[in-house]
Design goal:
Layout lengths: L6 H5 L7 E10 L6 H12 L4 E6 L8 E2 L9 H18 L7 E6 L14 E4 L7 E5 L9 H11 L25 H7 L5 E3 L2
Parallel strand pairs: 1-2, 1-3, 1-4, 4-6
Antiparallel strand pairs: 1-7, 5-6
The chain binds zinc ion.
Zinc ion binds next to helix 4.
Amino acid sequence: MANPPGYDEMHNYKHPKKVNFKLTLFWVEKAGDPSAKVLEKAKKLLKPHNLGLDVFPASRTPAMTLKWDGKIEVSPELAKEQALKLRALCHSAYPSGHGRLPVIFAPFSSLSGGDPCRTTGWTISGTNWLPFVIVNADRVAADNVTLLHEIGHAGLGGGHPGEKGSETNFMSYGTNRTGMLKTQILKLVKAYFAAQAK
Ligand SMILES: [Zn+2]
């Protein structure tokens, strides 16, 4: 059966100009490093839409490793304090990060139950910093979409589509997410960390 009218335009949208999302990566000491697999998955899902990533640095370096040995707490107040501390450390490590989304790989305290999004990644917005992302260094989603999902929160704000049929969308809680909608893409390319590819 053919897709209904407008389906391809919405689901297989190709942005007319190549746009990259610019990321700066940070790690904390002694933590795991899921960066390679979540970066690879993000690039794979972005490519058909003429979107990509511009990542600095390409892999873990001592300069981008933050001296911090905690775990992100469950308590929202403590977690926010920790996030702000980490964000300040990022600024010391790499002050010239203008126009890039900071992504910090740090371990989370064991988070059973609760919001399935917040167990693997967390986007912090509404502070004096532009939105930034913390990815759980110990556990990302099984489909590895965690990083792209958090890029989505940083650029789109808002929550998770819950309606039937949206389980494959990258902003859903689905377990095998592959899709991005035209409406999401048109908003995401306006994010502070998006830039036309040179
Ligand atoms: Zn989420």
